Amino acid sequence: MGEHAVVITRVAESQWHAVKDDRVVGRGDTSRRPDGRIFLSIDAWHGAVFDQLADAMLAGLPKPLYTVVDEADLDLTSRWERAGFTTRRREWEYLVPTDPRVTGLGSVLPPSGVTIVAVGEAEEGPLRKLDRVIRDEVEATVGWQEMPAEVLARPDGATLLDPSKYAVAAQSDKYVGLVRVAPVTRQPRIGLIAVRSDQHRRGIARALLAHVLGSLHRCGIETASAEVNESNGAAMALFEGVGARRASSNLELVLR
């Protein structure tokens, strides 16, 4: 970096700057996820500046701390590992075709007694009740912290923030399954598919996926994306079974 020293300054509650010769040569930021966990990001061209920013940030923040990196970015991953971070989990990003001729879902129907309520048409009360049931079931097994960031609980405990993004499977007077679809431009994202544990192995998740992908296809959208924790074998099998392919992977790193 030359002869002059790099000065690290905390310029805001969640931001650090690395300055050399009156020029910002690196930035560090923190963000608090809905579940309260603190995630770090550092943007620095030189490894030495990255290390200095990391040292300054880690000295002033409570642990555990987290960050997410593209697994293909070996340089960035090694920099975080140099700071003491280790891999907590891997999340695959899938590209999911919507064409029923490709997915094989064109003839898939919900099981007897179950109907699919389209995205944005679910009643908020029953939907929130189902969300609570599913969250409790997940908490009792793998833990809700293993869910995608966009569906993590906020400090007030809420996990369902926008009912308009959900399609549901209804049976009698209750909802038994849901799928969350984020309307990202050109490539919507499937953020969550979940079914009550007492309704597993009936084909409800597959029927929800068939409904959502079919709807996207009719709107002229060729692919959707989905992020799946590699420990979730059922979800990986569901997506790979309809022709989804792995496009990339992210690592969530932690410093305890």
From TrEMBL:
<dbReference type="GO" id="GO:0016746">
    <property type="term" value="F:acyltransferase activity"/>
</dbReference>
<feature type="domain" description="N-acetyltransferase">
    <location>
        <begin position="132"/>
        <end position="256"/>
    </location>
</feature>
<dbReference type="Pfam" id="PF13673">
    <property type="entry name" value="Acetyltransf_10"/>
</dbReference>
<dbReference type="InterPro" id="IPR016181">
    <property type="entry name" value="Acyl_CoA_acyltransferase"/>
</dbReference>
<dbReference type="InterPro" id="IPR000182">
    <property type="entry name" value="GNAT_dom"/>
</dbReference>
<protein>
    <submittedName>
        <fullName>GNAT family N-acetyltransferase</fullName>
        <ecNumber>2.3.1.-</ecNumber>
    </submittedName>
</protein>
<keyword id="KW-0808">Transferase</keyword>
<keyword id="KW-0012">Acyltransferase</keyword>
